[in-house]
Amino acid sequence: MIASGAQRRTMSESLRDRLHDRACVALVLGALTFNAILCFANTVLFPVSDILVIASEFVIISFAMVFALDRRIEPYLIVAVLVSYAMLIMAMRPMFDPKAVRDFLIPVAFYCLGRRRPSLALTDKIVLSAGVIVVAFGLFEYLAFETFEKYFNIIRYYVARGTVAPADVLAETGTLFASGLRPDSRTLLPFLGPHRVSSVFLEPVSTGNFGAILYIWALCRPGMRGRMILFACAAIVIVLADARFGAYTCIAATAASLVFYRLPRVFWFCLPLAMMCALAIYGFESMQMDWANDISGRILWTARLLTSLSLDGAMGVSAQKPFLSDSGYAYSINEIGIVGFIVFWGLFIFSAPADRTAWRLRACAATYFCLLLVISDSPYSIKTAAVFWFMLGGADAEGEKRVQALKLSRRSYDDVLAARGAVTA
Predict the structure, then answer these.
(1) Are the beta carbons of 336 and 377 closer than 8 angstroms?
(2) How far apart, in whole angstroms, are the C-alpha atoms of residue 32 and residue 49?
(3) The pTM is what?
(4) Phi first, then psi: what are they for 279, rounded to 5°?
């Protein structure tokens, strides 16, 4: 029998949906693991350069944009506005810095990719798969380290890609990243020793951040299949990486999930601005010069970095490129300016759908970002940002679908009441 036009359209849409689902899995998990793959290549196959790393990231982001965009006009407008602003910032600087464009495109690409086809089942599958991959790779690193370092020489990879200078390589950390060993006592389960597991991220800071991301998704998805497994993955990742920030973020996210509906959106909009003001006051007023590698020391250091910015740096047009990776707030302002930060944070807060479930995740995400920006610029790293923005996009799409269904049901109910009134009359 010859398929009808409607059947052919249904088959075409089904094939397109399957292709999109497979692309989502490949792109999100590819963004998660490509650094580990390149590290393996650099260790046992061929030398890796910074050009290859940049090209790999560019390919992933480009394909994410291709599969994210559809007939809706909103994603194109968002991309046009963000890229235009980034180009404006770069035009006002005396030097070309494409990193600003890249920092914008990662959240846009993966958020729109998650929104393309609402399917929380697909998002659950990807997040759970990512958690299992990170745990399995992390256990391999911890339990069989001698074998692991034969195939994954992490510090040599970072030197090859130009992130670490050869003179900065520490003999005591061996093949690990500089933060791969805890110089003082481990905070979480000290009997595990000083080794902080890096897993596929190749450095423990991102590993701990990813553990917090897994926890937030499991916390906000009570009906998810494999939820307890995801909670277990989050706990294992945070403990293996000895991630103090990850543990604190899980506590803060739990508190945010309990009170988010009592706090207006303007509170979440003002939260990072208030934190930056407090850090700036602390940086200007504190007379302490030395800082330790603990929470109070990291707060002091980020306050110092924030108050070290010039006026041009605060507006995002400075020609100077100081090292600001230890302060996400200082890095963000130096890259996009205080005006750009306020505008894009407002877009993040006020563009969330009215659905309660989606807004709960957005509140936890806002908590995560506000805390992480105190100590790191990791929110801009594709290793963890791809998964996180994909989660937000999927949750928002599902929330909008629920809001539209509710509006439709209310409209139908109103139509029934109107019809009954007309019959009665």
Answers:
(1) no
(2) 19
(3) 0.88
(4) -65, -40
